[in-house]
């Protein structure tokens, strides 16, 4: 319990620093929050492929966080790091799936993803293809988590699906903030949903 209090405290310090400073706090507590989740997963997760894939996804997320925080624009390396993280999460979720697919689920997720892509399209410029690929990968990650939950109906699957949906929400707000223009509450929305998403995915290896 205390370990999750530390995670929440670290995440809140990062969000607060994004608005009020100091700068060192902003740079320290974002990666530290994910590192704490990794530590919780290492200490409490079972020794199986699902745990290892989720931990690897968290590690690539941490690298992506660092790239996106650097003073110089490192958007493409950050995007690639999170792309790998989503692929690792996808493999973890799809490995847990057994049984018939629910086909309306990818239809809903796919439709939402296409709408987001079309809204961003006029502003993407040379990043059209990388962003399009990223949206497709995170959409199928959420689809895999959703199929896992619809089939298993377990707490583990619920945490995975909830985390995947929050990740989609976080990245959607991030994309609009970057390509359509920043707005005052963007950091709060992006980081709160992001930390909650990673927290739920981490919980899925502990349940």
For the structure shown, list the relevant keywords.
single chain, 207 residues, mainly alpha, 8 helices, TMEM86B-like, hydrolase activity, transmembrane helix, YhhN-like protein
Summarize the structure.
The protein is mainly α.
Gross morphology: globular
Number-wise, the strands total: 0
Oligomer: single chain
Low-pLDDT regions:
none
The average pLDDT value, as a whole number, equals 94
SS-derived structural category: mainly alpha
Query: Helix-strand pattern, N to C?
Result: HHHHHHHH
Protein name: YhhN-like protein
Subcellular location: Membrane
GO molecular function: hydrolase activity
Membrane topology: Multi-pass membrane protein
Question: Care to describe what's here?
Answer:
The protein has 207 residues and is mainly alpha-helical. It has one domain (2-203). 83% of the residues lie in helices and 0% in strands. Helix 3 packs antiparallel against helix 4 (75-95), helix 5 packs antiparallel against helix 6 and helix 5 (104-124) packs parallel to helix 7 (155-179). The longest helix has 25 residues, at 128-152. It is globular. It is a multi-pass membrane protein.
Could you outline the blueprint of secondary structure elements for this entry?
Blueprint: H1 2-20, H2 23-44, H3 49-69, H4 75-95, H5 104-124, H6 128-152, H7 155-179, H8 186-203
Subcellular location: Membrane
Keywords: Membrane, Transmembrane, Transmembrane helix
GO molecular function: hydrolase activity
């Amino acid at each position: 319990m205390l370990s999750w209090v530390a995670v929440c405290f670290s995440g809140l310090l990062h969000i607060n620093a994004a608005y009020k400073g100091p700068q060192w706090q902003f740079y320290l507590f974002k990666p530290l929050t994910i590192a704490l989740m990794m530590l919780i997963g290492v200490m409490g997760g079972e020794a199986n492929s699902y745990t290892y894939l989720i931990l690897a996804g968290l590690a690539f997320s941490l690298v992506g966080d660092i790239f996106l925080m650097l003073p110089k624009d490192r958007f493409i390396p950050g995007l690639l790091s999170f792309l790998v993280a989503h692929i690792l999460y996808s493999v973890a979720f799809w490995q847990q799936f057994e049984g018939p697919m629910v086909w309306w689920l990818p239809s809903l997720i796919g439709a939402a993803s296409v709408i987001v892509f079309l809204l961003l399209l006029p502003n993407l410029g040379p990043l059209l293809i990388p962003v399009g690929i990223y949206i497709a990968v995170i959409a199928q990650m959420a689809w895999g988590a959703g199929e896992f939950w619809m089939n298993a109906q377990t707490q583990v699957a619920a945490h995975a699906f909830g985390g995947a949906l929050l990740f989609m929400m976080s990245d959607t707000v991030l994309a609009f903030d970057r390509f359509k223009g920043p707005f005052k509450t963007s950091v709060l929305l992006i980081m709160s949903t992001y930390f909650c998403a990673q927290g739920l995915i981490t919980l899925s290896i502990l349940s």
